[in-house]
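Reagents: none. Just compute today. Sulfurtransferase.
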Amino acid sequence: MKNLGLAETVVQAQNAVPNSRKINGESLTGDVNLNAEDVGTYGRSEIDNLFGLKDLAKLEENGWWECGDTGLIIQWGSHRFSALVENVVNLPREFKHACLSIQMIDAGGGVLPMATYPNGTLNSFKAWVAGKCFDFKGNEISLTTSSFIIGQYLAIGY
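Predicted 3D structure written out:
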């Protein structure tokens, strides 16, 4: 350093911030660790509380998604529905407060009357399939209690 003429620069740098200076009561003799509160900003938990929780999901064939901000839950799945009898379908997860809507369709390409309705629980719903349906050509098909239809459902609640 002496040969380069930087000795004076090194001395100035060493004395640039004296040890007597402090940041939030901590001396500058070594590394200073500051948290969010020390610098007047929000911590991780405060940010999560201000901006909502993370969304949750189970992304499977019979799955669900929950909005972290509102608590809205959307569930979907496939079920083997028997014709001409009341079917009880268990949901992938229980709603916390209410089931608002349930929709279902035939997943096999047929046209048939199907209906769903809440059954007073938060973890299942009831459904029925009529005794007659039509194929894509308009041919009528009669179903019996031993017939089944693969259907898909979508349930919304919170």
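Residues 4-50 form one domain.
Action item: order primers for follow-up constructs.
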